[in-house]
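Hypothesis: this fold can be encoded by more than one sequence.
Test: take the structure tokens below, design a sequence, compare later.
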């Protein structure tokens, strides 16, 4: 399977993707736990049907020590007992922030307040940025039909 076009061979899309990668660095450097970052990226990617990003973030998380049980249960996190209350709040925020078109009001005050109980202002800012960036990557990759399965941990930075 070949993508519709190579984003890094395109002068326009290559620049945009490089800016998205750069935009991710302050999130990586934040105090938002790495495990939470990967769980959020994985869940948003599942919702958006981005196989490329699901492959990448599941493998990066596993490489960093995340368990297969937790990775396998991200899609059904509400019924799973393996996530902390903070992770559950981040996953809820990620779902609502990804499914904006499904709810006229966007992210609920309840979801925001729940996340604010577990994360400080800078971590909340990192979560908002993370959800926005992964959704941008997901949408681009889905439109391009980027293939999944061949990613190696750390391959893209």
């Amino acid at each position: 399977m070949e993508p519709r076009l190579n984003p890094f061979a395109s002068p326009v899309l290559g620049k945009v993707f490089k800016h998205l990668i750069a935009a991710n660095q302050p999130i990586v450097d934040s105090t938002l736990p790495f495990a939470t970052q990967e769980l959020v990226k994985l869940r948003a990617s599942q919702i958006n049907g981005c196989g490329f990003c699901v492959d990448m973030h599941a493998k990066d998380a596993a490489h960093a020590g995340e368990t297969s049980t937790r990775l396998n249960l991200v899609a059904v996190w509400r019924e799973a007992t393996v996530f902390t209350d903070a992770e559950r709040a981040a996953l809820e925020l990620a779902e609502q922030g990804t499914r904006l078109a499904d709810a006229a009001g966007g992210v609920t005050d309840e979801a925001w307040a729940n996340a604010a109980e577990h994360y400080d202002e800078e971590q909340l800012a990192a979560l908002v940025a993370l959800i926005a960036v992964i959704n941008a990557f997901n949408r681009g990759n889905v439109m391009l039909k980027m293939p999944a399965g061949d990613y190696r941990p750390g391959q893209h930075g």
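The radius of gyration is 15 Å. The chain has a mean pLDDT of 95.
Hypothesis status: open.
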